[in-house]
Amino acid sequence: MGHDTRPVVVISGGSRGLGQALVADFLARDYVVATFSRGPTPFIENLRQDRATAESFFWEPVDGADYECVKKFVLTVARRHGQIDVLVNNAATGADGLLTLMRPDEIHRSLAVNLEGAVHLIHACARVMLARQRGSIVSISSVNALRGHAGVSIYSAAKAALDGLTRSLARELGPQGIRVNSVAPGYFESDMVRSLTQEQRQRIVRRTPLGRLATPPDVVAVIRFLTSPEAGFITGQTLVVDGGLTC
After folding, report:
1. Is 58:80 a contact under the CB 8 Å cutoff?
2. Would you name the residues annotated as active-site residues?
3. Which CATH class is domain 8-241?
């Protein structure tokens, strides 16, 4: 049986927030979208029940920190569709708190999801991309990887490591036609930002030259560009989308 000729994108953490916006955007552009999260949301359930997206959408419950589950998911996508053209490493978890007050299991979980999970997913997807000698990988980093902020040291370390991974993999995979970039959003409407007080949010807005928080569409537009043919000569870069916060 022949495979669908449409491009295939794998998006981690596609059940809510930025991941949800990415899933919707890629579906609207006629991609086959495969995504996973630890559990379903109404957004996921609606897509699974919608006959219009039956052939275009695939979701499974996967813990991104479990390499065997991630590998099985990627192999299922490859068998179903014969290819993976784009990977967006989006899954993340916050780990707020001063390092000296964090429990070892909190540290481990943050590194496992924010860094190890991304590495494992790239490891699995890149092997599929190598077979066709082309592909685009984008990891969602953070302005916390670029500037120090108290209370997010482990999260910042994981995101900074993702940027370093991006640069090294661009050299490793570039000769095989695979581009690797990362996007570092500023603070945008998400579960992590919703935990901030109104005073904290206003402080961020005041420090941002463009005078507002980012929105998911701000970030989605950049990922759309980086995974498009128009960005065909861009690799190994971290593109900051923060309204000037870090300038």
Report:
1. yes
2. 155
3. alpha beta
**pLDDT tens figures, 187-244:** 887 666 676 788 888 898 999 999 999 999 999 999 999 999 999 999 999 999 999 9
SS3 labels along 174-222: HHHCEEEEEEEECCECCHHHHCCCHHHHHHHHHHCCCCCCECHHHHHHH
Task: Assess whether pLDDT exceeds 70 at residue 163.
Answer: yes
Domain range list for the chain:
8-241
Residue 7 CB partners (closer than 8 Å, separation 6+): 31, 32, 83, 85, 86
Only one residue has tokens 């300038």, namely: 247
Residue 114, burial from CB neighbour count under 10 angstroms (0-12, 13-18, 19+): buried
Quote the CA–CA distance of 206 and 198 in Å, as a whole number. 12
Q: How sure is the predictor about 71, in pLDDT bands with cuts at 50, 70 and 90?
A: very high
Q: Please, which pLDDT band fits residue 88 given cuts at 50, 70 and 90?
A: very high
C-alpha triplet 127, 73, 84: angle, nearest 5°:
45
What are the CA-CA distances from residue 101 to residues 33, 46, 156 (Å)?
A: 40, 40, 16
Q: How far apart are CA 12 and CA 22, in angstroms?
A: 10
